[in-house]
From TrEMBL, chain A:
GO terms for molecular function: ATP binding. NCBIfam families: urea_trans_UrtD (TIGR03411). Residues 5-246 form the ABC transporter domain. InterPro entries: AAA+_ATPase, ABC_AA/LPS_Transport, ABC_transporter-like_ATP-bd, ABC_transptr_urea_ATP-bd_UrtD, P-loop_NTPase. Keywords: ATP-binding, Nucleotide-binding, Transport. It comes from the Bacteria. Coiled coil: none annotated. This is Urea ABC transporter ATP-binding protein UrtD.
TrEMBL record, chain B:
One of its GO terms (molecular function) is transmembrane transporter activity. GO terms for biological process: amino acid transport. The chain crosses the membrane at residues 364-388, 417-435, 496-516, 547-567, 579-607, 619-636. It is a multi-pass membrane protein. It holds the Pfam family BPD_transp_2. This is Urea ABC transporter permease subunit UrtB. NCBIfam families: urea_trans_UrtB. It is found in: Cell membrane. The gene is urtB. It comes from Parasedimentitalea maritima. One of its GO terms (cellular component) is plasma membrane.
Automatic annotation (TrEMBL), chain C:
It is a multi-pass membrane protein. Pfam families: BPD_transp_2. One of its GO terms (molecular function) is branched-chain amino acid transmembrane transporter activity. It is found in: Cell membrane. This is Urea ABC transporter permease subunit UrtC. GO terms for cellular component: plasma membrane. Keywords: Cell membrane, Membrane, Transmembrane, Transmembrane helix. The chain crosses the membrane at residues 12-38, 50-79, 140-163, 170-188, 216-239, 259-286, 292-311, 318-335, 355-379. The lineage of its organism: Bacteria, Pseudomonadati, Pseudomonadota, Alphaproteobacteria, Rhodobacterales.
Length: 246, 651, 389
């Protein structure tokens, strides 16, 4: 397995507070990874850096086979490179139908003119239907996204991410506020997605992480504290001190 | 000249007894009867000097009367009297020495002394000299001022002599300064003049520049041969250079009748019109004459027939100009003096430039204070609370009108301003609270809606003010003690009212910092704006805090309105003038920070003054360029000069 | 594709039919082409209103759909007016001047004509030289191109600067307001090249056209109606497709759109520039009907009124913008024109000329607070009732 994303020696500080401190992180193609850590460990800032929302003070972020640096790219460019991101709060376009949400996310030319002239073909509609079925929203396609339940919105967002056909998926607390059944569905979606692409899941819920059954990275004070299987890291005394032992 | 010196010496000794000459005015006049009767500038001098030197207390009055054509000669005996018209062609005469009336006479028995302007000037000079040594210092100062207005060579000697005996230190300094200025203009000795010029190096006085500038005035001269050696030549100018274009140089030749006038297109046209003959000009049909080339052809044909002067175009002009040299000469003939004057002027210019920079800086600071005053309320409502209030300008207006109304009730300007400031705060505070309660609180976190709703309030308030106070500007008069200016020298001055506004801005800054950093309200405001839910759970009522904070911001806008009204016109539309600048100030400075507003105001104030200085004729353009600059500035510092960083800045 | 577009957007068809019938009725009632019930000056008012509706559509596109509250679109409107005004004024002056010079004893040369035009047009600002921006004033074609090009380029440059540095929300509004103010102040100068506060005048006369104003006004009325129809259809077509989706996405959650891989800045810039061009075309049709344009037309408050119309009509729906602009501008004309009856209260008489703006301002606050969907929101209520019945 080749390395898809390599983050090395990255630091960033806000007004003197070091949110990320010499962080290094790697993920390979088609790998599922969980990132855990206490509040303020830098999980969200880490995602901000990878997706271009925050510029690090130092360090490198290298992407793909051609080893391009992501630091010079805008958020949109990075997204087009194949990195999809799901935010903590479900953010779908509530004023538009589920179908419109999907259509917007479909991997197509993102230029203004081609967007203007775009009219969905039969194949596009079929792809939307397939995605909707996968995330369990086939019946809701023509409803407004704002009318969906909280869990459905999360799935819609995951579905939209899949529609982008990214090579790396960054998922921030996908299970927050879900019922146990919804969690189960979500974890299955993620495991399924990770078969064809890399997926990084940031999550608080240990039960959910266990269900993902993957390598775990523990962040603390902006750096990597431990890495390995869930059992491995949970038996690490340092991890127990800062996170689990509370 | 010598006689003037004597006269002056006599004047010096006026107060001392024992040196009196024993003649009365009438006797002096009678001795010089012929000169007085047929007075002329060339001959009357000695008489005036004798009168001036007579040490008679009536002398000054007599000279004044003489100058005013109030002295009459009685034909019967040739004696001179003061005459006043009592009836038509009927004059009452009084004796110049005793002041006693000698009766009334008809005009035909009398002859009026009518000194011509030259004689009157001599009389006036004599009178000035009288005043220069007058026992009353005010009169002496007056005399000096008269001299400054119209300096003459004759003033120089007596002025020099009057310096030593001058008791008043200020007047003495004034006299010696004037003496040096007169020396520059009128002293015959070149070295003395140069020394006087050098004594003024770097002096900022307007009078110095007024004295030196005529020395270096140049006039244009033309010669066809070599440059003359006996003239003080400033420089030689080549026609076609920046200072003298070819056509302008040729026009000079034409004006001196050294060359025939160039042929303009109008000339051609006029010539052609004058020679239209049966629909043709020189056998070219009129209809073809819309082409300039054909017009030229027709003109040349006319010239061949000697009907019009030959065509003189650019080539002829260039050729002709080769034969002449253009040069500028100084009016002042002494090279040493003009060199010294130029050197002194350039040093003065440098000094003036530096002082102008200082003056500009003061101007910029006062403008910055005004912007700061206008923006500080916004720095609270927009900067701290994040509420965009388009009616902010109308709160400023409301404050200014409050001041105006107070002045209608309380006529004393000092008292009325002291009343108006807190009252304006109260009025706009109340208005702000009402607006917050009725409108803004429903729109928190919906900034665009807030913008539009407050804009609606803005137009309503503006029109309301128009309905109440009318469209014409209302005055808000500053107290008398704020009139005038603090004058440092002839270049640097700043009006008291601007100083007052600067101080007011400082007070506002202090009050603001105190409220935000040291009071309960300030603490609660900061808490509520950072995390309203947490604040609420700690027992702070966010609604109350928001209401009071908004009221505070509005109230400060009202006080700023009174201050702004003192130097700007109070109209219903005055808010418009400040709203964009205020927002720019807050945005450029950095939102959420009082120092940001200060920095923004300073930058915009200095920028605007700087641009106005670069383009003084056009304040409209200055504002245009300033806004463009701000738009570009925001490219580089989107969060303003003093930016909050990181997550605290929000997204 | 077209049938499906109309079928999917029945409101467009309704609107176009309504516009067509309105135009036909007005034509029949007009002085120029019909029975003369409607005066020429009112035809001009109606024509101008149609232009205002067009710029309101542009405003709705940029604000209601893309969420960019621009307080500068009236500046583009004015610039469009200036561009067409330059040709109208130049050409008309040229005809008059040439005729006058032809009366002279010899025919004028080209430069004599131009000098004479120059002193006719710029004498009022103490100049007789043609400023650089008048270079193409003698060519209708180029000047028509400039109607779109100049405001378009201005919008492009300004938008590029603003969006690039991620100025959003109220900051962008303030910045656009500053831009408008800068432009207005610039035009107020005598040496701006556009006659300072005198502006351009006599624009109601079409050079070389002998037809009376009653006819000319109808031409412009019909052209305005057609422009509105086209502009509305274009806008409706844009928002019905994926671009509309993306624009609404940007309005509702810019960051999310960015993480979907769309370069938000590019889309904003495109819609900002496009709407600026539409606004400029509306202005180019408006000012020949108004007859005069001066910098006072461009001051920021005009653009804010535009936002007011759209908000009152109901933003985010194109017919709302048209209704708002048409309704508010016509009713404003009625109230401020002194036609509305005064209301005597005994102790005070409410004169609408004085009180209309107060009412407008307050009603605007009311709409923002109580009816954020504007007049257009009423249609939703009707639809719901029908649905229930």
């Amino acid at each position: 397995m080749s390395t898809l994303l390599e983050v090395s020696g990255v630091s960033v500080s806000f007004d003197g507070f070091k949110a990320i401190n010499n962080l290094s992180f790697q993920i390979a193609d088609a790998e599922l990874r969980a990132v855990i850590g206490p509040n303020g460990a830098g999980k969200t800032t880490f995602m901000d850096i990878v997706t271009g929302k925050t510029r690090p003070d130092e360090g490198r972020v290298i992407w793909g086979e051609k080893s391009v640096s992501l630091l010079r790219m805008s958020e949109a460019q990075i997204a087009r490179e194949g990195i999809g991101r799901k935010f903590q709060k479900p953010t779908v376009f509530e004023g538009q139908t589920v179908r419109e949400n999907f259509l917007m996310a479909l991997k197509k030319d993102r230029g203004v003119l081609s967007v203007l002239l775009f009219r969905p073909s039969k194949a596009d509609h079929e792809q939307v239907d397939a995605l909707a079925e996968e995330v369990g929203l086939l019946a809701e396609l023509d409803r407004l996204a704002g009318e969906l339940s909280h869990g459905q919105k999360q799935w819609l967002e995951i579905g939209m991410l899949l529609a982008q056909e990214p090579r790396l998926l960054l998922v921030d607390e996908p299970a927050a506020g879900m019922t146990p059944e919804e969690r189960e569905h979500t974890s299955k979606l993620l495991v399924q997605a990770a078969k064809t692409r890399a997926v990084v899941v940031v999550e608080h819920d240990m039960e959910f992480v266990r269900r993902l059954n993957c390598k775990v990275t523990v962040l603390h004070e902006g750096g990597v504290l431990a890495e390995g299987s869930l059992d491995h890291v949970t038996s690490n005394s340092a991890v127990i001190d800062v996170y689990l032992g509370r | 000249m010598i006689r003037i010196l004597i006269a002056c010496l006599a004047l010096m000794c006026w107060g001392q007894a024992g040196l009196a000459l024993d003649l009365t005015l009438q006797e002096i006049l009678q001795q010089n009867k012929n000169l007085v009767e047929k007075s002329s500038r060339k001959t009357i001098g000695p008489v005036i000097e004798e009168i001036a030197a007579s040490n008679l207390s009536q002398a000054q009055g007599f000279l004044e009367a003489w100058g005013n054509k109030q002295v009459w000669q009685r034909r019967s005996d040739g004696l001179f009297f003061f005459g006043t018209e009592v009836a038509k062609r009927q004059y009452k005469l009084t004796d110049p020495d005793s002041g006693e009336s000698v009766g009334e006479f008809t005009k035909k028995d009398l002859k009026q002394l009518k000194p011509n302007s030259g004689v009157r000037a001599l009389i006036a000079t004599a009178l000035v000299l009288f005043q220069l040594s007058d026992p009353d210092p005010a009169k002496r100062a007056e005399a000096l001022q008269a001299m400054e207005r119209a300096p003459t060579a004759e003033h120089l000697a007596p002025l020099r002599l009057s310096i030593d005996n001058e008791q008043d230190a200020d007047l003495k300094a004034h006299k010696s300064r004037l003496e040096r200025l007169l020396t520059i203009s009128f002293d015959p000795d070149t070295a003395t003049r140069v020394a006087a010029i050098q004594s003024f190096e770097g002096d900022l006085g307007v009078d110095v520049r007024a004295t030196l500038n005529p020395l270096v005035v140049t006039s244009m001269n033309i010669t066809s041969g070599d440059l003359p050696t006996d003239e003080n030549i400033a420089r030689v100018i080549k026609p076609g250079s920046e200072d003298l274009s070819m056509p302008a140089a040729y026009d000079l030749l034409v004006a001196r009748k050294l060359a025939p006038p160039a042929t303009s297109t109008e000339d051609i046209r006029a010539a052609l019109v004058a020679h239209i003959d049966g629909g043709q000009v020189a056998k070219i049909s009129v209809a073809q004459l819309s082409d300039p080339e054909i017009r030229r052809q027709a003109y040349d044909r006319l010239a061949e027939q000697s009907l019009v002067p030959a065509f003189i175009g650019e080539e002829d002009i260039a050729k002709k100009l080769l034969g002449y040299t253009f040069y500028e000469t100084f009016a002042e003939t002494s090279v040493v003096v003009t060199d010294a004057a130029q050197a002194a002027l350039s040093k003065i210019d440098l000094n003036v430039g530096m002082n102008q920079t200082l003056d500009l800086t003061l101007d910029a600071i006062s403008l910055a204070s005004i912007y700061f005053l206008a923006a500080i309320g916004l720095a609270i409502t927009f900067g701290v609370m994040g509420v965009i209030n388009m009616a902010h300008g109308e709160f400023i207006m409301m404050g200014a009108y409050t001041g105006y109304v107070v002045q209608q009730v309380i006529p004393n300007h000092t008292v009325s301003i002291l009343v108006a400031l807190p009252l304006a705060f109260a009025v706009t505070f109340a208005a702000g609270v009402v607006m917050e309660r009725l409108v803004i609180r429903y729109l928190y976190n919906r900034p665009l809606e807030t913008l539009l709703a407050t804009f609606g309030i803005s137009i309503a308030l503006q029109q309301l003010a128009k309905n109440i106070f009318g469209t014409q500007a209302r005055p808000l008069t500053a107290p008398g003690w704020l009139d005038g200016a603090w004058v440092m020298n002839d270049v640097v001055s700043i009006s008291f009212i601007r100083i007052a506004i600067f101080i007011l801005a400082l007070i506002f800054l202090g009050v603001f910092l105190f409220i935000i950093k040291r009071t309960r309200l300030g603490l609660e405001t900061r808490t509520v704006t950072q995390n309203p839910r947490m604040a609420a759970s700690m027992g702070i009522n966010p609604e109350r805090v928001n209401m009071l904070t908004f009221g505070l911001g509005s109230g400060i806008a009202g006080v700023a309105g009174v201050a702004i009204g003192l130097f700007a016109k109070v109209t219903s539309e005055m808010g418009n003038d400040y709203i964009v600048q205020s927002f720019m100030t807050v945005v450029v400075g950095g939102v959420g920070n009082i120092w940001g507003a200060l920095a923004g105001a300073t930058m915009i104030g200095f920028l605007q003054k700087g641009i106005e200085w670069g383009n003084p004729s056009n304040t409209l353009a200055a504002q245009t360029y300033m806004i463009i600059f701000i738009i570009i500035f925001i490219q580089f510092r989107p969060r303003g000069i003093i930016a909050l960083k990181g997550r605290a800045a929000g997204d | 594709m077209r049938t499906s577009f109309i079928a999917k957007n029945p409101s467009v068809l309704v609107f176009l039919l309504a516009l067509a019938s309105f135009t036909i009725i007005v034509t029949i009632l007009s002085e120029g082409f019909g029975i003369g019930v409607i005066s020429t000056s009112f035809i001009k008012t109606l024509g101008k209103t149609l232009c205002l509706c067009l710029i309101a559509v542009a405003m709705d596109l940029v604000w209601g759909f893309a969420g960019i509250l621009s307080l500068g679109h009236f500046a583009f409107f004015g610039l469009g007016g200036y561009m067409i005004g330059m040709w109208l004024m130049y050409e008309r002056t040229r005809l008059i001047v040439t005729e006058a010079l032809m009366q002279g004893q010899i025919p004028p040369t080209g430069s004599e004509v131009i000098d004479s035009i120059g002193s006719q047009i710029f004498g009022v600002v103490g100049s007789n030289e043609f400023p650089l921006i008048w270079t193409f004033a003698d060519s209708l074609g180029l000047q028509l191109l400039l109607v779109v090009l100049l405001p378009g380029i201005l919008a492009l440059v300004f938008g590029w600067l603003a969006f690039r540095s991620r100025v959003t929300g109220v900051y962008l509004s303030i910045l656009t307001q500053a831009m408008t103010l800068a432009l207005a102040l610039y035009l107020f100068q005598n040496d701006s090249g556009l006659r300072g506060n005198n502006g351009l005048s006599g624009l109601q006369n079409l050079p070389g056209v002998e037809a009376p104003q009653s006819i000319v006004s109808m031409w412009f009325f019909l052209a305005s109606a057609m422009a509105l129809g086209l502009g509305y259809s274009l806008a409706a077509w844009i928002v019905s497709g994926k671009l509309g989706s993306v624009l609404r996405g940007i309005r509702d959650n810019e960051t999310r759109v960015r993480f979907l891989g769309y370069s938000v800045e590019g889309f904003k810039l495109a819609i900002f520039t496009l709407t600026a061009c539409i606004a400029a075309i509306a202005g180019a049709l408006y000012y020949p009907q108004a007859g005069i344009i001066n910098p006072a037309e461009i001051v920021p408050i005009a653009s804010i009124y535009l936002a007011v119309w759209v908000a009152i009509g109901g933003r985010g729906r194109l017919y709302g913008a048209v209704i708002g602009a048409g309704f508010v501008s016509l009713i404003s004309t009625w109230f401020t024109g002194g036609q509305a009856p005064d209301i005597p209260l005994g102790f005070y008489t409410i004169r609408w000329v004085d009180w209309w703006l107060v009412l407008l301002g307050l009603s605007f606050v009311g709409v923002t607070l109580f009816a954020p969907k504007g007049i257009g929101g009423l249609f939703d209520l009707l639809k719901k009732k029908e649905g229930k019945a």
